[in-house]
Amino acid sequence: MSKLFIVNKYMLTAKNLTKKYGEHIALHNLNLTIEAGEIFALLGQNGAGKTTTINCFLGFVEPSSGQAIINDISVTQNTAETKKYLAYIPETVMLYGNLTGIENLEFFSQLAGFRYSKEELSGFLSKAGLQTTAHSQRVGGYSKGMRQKVGIAIAIAKKAKVLLLDEPTSGLDPKASNEFSEILKELSQQGTAILMATHDIFRAKEVAHRIGIMKQGHLVSVIDSRDISATELEQLYLQMV
Amino acid sequence: MRFSVLKILSRQVYRSTIKKRSTLWLIGIFNLMLGFAVVSGYQILTTQQQIVDKYSQQVRHRWEKSPDKHPHRMAHYGYVAFRQKFPLSFFDFGMNSYVGNAVFLEAHRQNTVNFSEASLSNGLLRFGEISAGLILQLLLPLVIFFWGFDLISAERENGTLRILLTQGISWPELIMGKCLGLFSVSLTIFVPVVVISLILLFSNGAIGDNWQSLGYFAILIVGYLVYLLIVSLLAVFVSAKSNTSKSALTKLIGFWLFFTLILPKISLVIGQNLYPSPSKVEFDTAVEHELLAQGDSHNPNDPHFKVLKDSLLQAYGVDSTHKLPFNYGGYVMREGERLSAETYKRHQAKLVAIYQKQQNVVRLTALCNPFMAIKNLSMALSGTDYATYHDFENQAEAYRYKLAQTMNELQIKLISNTTKGSSGKQAIINRKHWAEFPDFSHHFPAFILVFQQEKLAIFSLIIWISGLYFLVTLSSKHFKAF
């Protein structure tokens, strides 16, 4: 019963979300809802408005009109409150190179208001798929895949209800990329709403529940991933953009 | 603003800065320099205190041991007043080495205070002394800027800033947290020198009768802490505002040059041009000119004192000054001393007013220049500014006037009116009178005077810290996350 309630809850909503830079319209009347536990992938060329959408939800970009809403709270009106539910994983998760994985996680968790023991922190890193031997190594020596895992661990430790991902798997080797997808699925099963901007059509088809295609600031198409094969999706994408 | 977040952020800045080997070297070098500056300053101070003690005792001894003689001869024998050094002067040398240390006090004349350190030393002093005050005011900000310029801009450049902000911290929290971290790093340089200075202050014998300096030091410490906070906040604020670390560093070094070198120099030149002061020769000539018109008080028959003479004769109903019931020569001398002292005072007051106006221009720039503010405050509280020196001049002149007039009074009362000259047996008085005249003692200005004079500086520090704070808390919308 409660599971049903969670699934129906809209965690992320964009209402006529628009962002203009002078004459240029980066995002045009975007309307989008993402439920708890849902993974939504945004496809589109560079400059299609994917990152702008994510930045609006993060509060880093103020929309020209419309609203970005997280867990029923408007981002522009109460940025601080919405941050409590958010976690963000950029193309490369940048961390403090002179600190270890655990120290980085501890620092960022403390800022979010959580205090964990070393064991708990280590547990989060393991859950995010980071091998135990790397936990107390300096992040400066981490590969990109390992950094992304710390990013996931930060999200888990924060108990984030919404995950915003900006091309998180670009540049990852297939194995790391696959691991990453598995973790995302797991998080989604636990009720996390995930918005992911990506160029990886096959990854999107595999991991996402719904897929949106953006072109010049417009969301031109939204497809249920069960209704389409990867090849069909690719053809559709090429037609659209 | 949440205290816990500030603590986490500042601790992170402190730890990551202190971890670097270059930081440790810098901290070590600064502590060495500061330690050397205060210890050598303290040695100079105690040496000077000993010299002043020794020679003022000698002056006193010789004054008291002077033989029986005519009091006016004693007034011409004179006295030497020595400028004491404030026990805190080792912390900030200020103008100490460039202003005079001793002045010869005699009847009729206001001599210049002479024998400054600069006039006695070889050229070495010309290269400038390095006092703890100077290092803290001038060099420490530069180091703080080097530590702080990229605290936010580098996080923006490498992308950690977005993750930081996504964790729910606000811009004011981020800036204040980083600022407090930077500030605590600067304390690793400031605290040791304060501790050493306190030890030195207590080991100085003069502290016993001068607790004043301890109170001043407490205020000075607060002043410096606020200054360091301003510098730290400025560094982090500029780092947050700048697009790149490089431009942040360029701006901060620009600020530093402008505030510490350009603005003080400009304000000084403007002050001197707006209110030109006469040269020493011009000043002396003007005073001399006026004094000549007042006549020679050594000569009781000088026509300038005719009115005085006539009124006295009339009042006492006699026809000759010889018949007056007191020493007429002493009376004229007393009157002459009063007139010449007043003349000098008036001219001196005018001159000082010009100096004040020049300095007020500099003080006014302190409002927009925290460096100038702390410099003025530090000098004033260390007792090494011009006002403290001028206060000594006034005390010495007041003592000189009292000395000359006391001797005149002795002449009026004790020397027979019919005595001619000043060498005969009747013209001398007992030497016991010399010891009755008290020794010169130099006091330092009370805090209320220092405060009144430096209120602009204090005001400036308050304005800067609160202004920057409001700027940080109010303009958080204008900072960029990427």
From TrEMBL, chain B:
UniProt keyword list: Membrane, Transmembrane, Transmembrane helix
Record InterPro entries: DUF3526 (IPR021913)
Entry keyword Transmembrane: yes
Transmembrane portions of the chain: 24-45, 130-152, 180-202, 214-240, 252-270, 456-474
Name this polypeptide is given: DUF3526 domain-containing protein
PANTHER family documented for this protein: ABC TRANSPORTER PERMEASE, ABC TRANSPORTER PERMEASE PROTEIN NOSY-RELATED
Domain of life: Bacteria
Native organism: Xanthocytophaga flava
This protein's record includes keyword Transmembrane: yes
A Pfam family the protein falls into: DUF3526
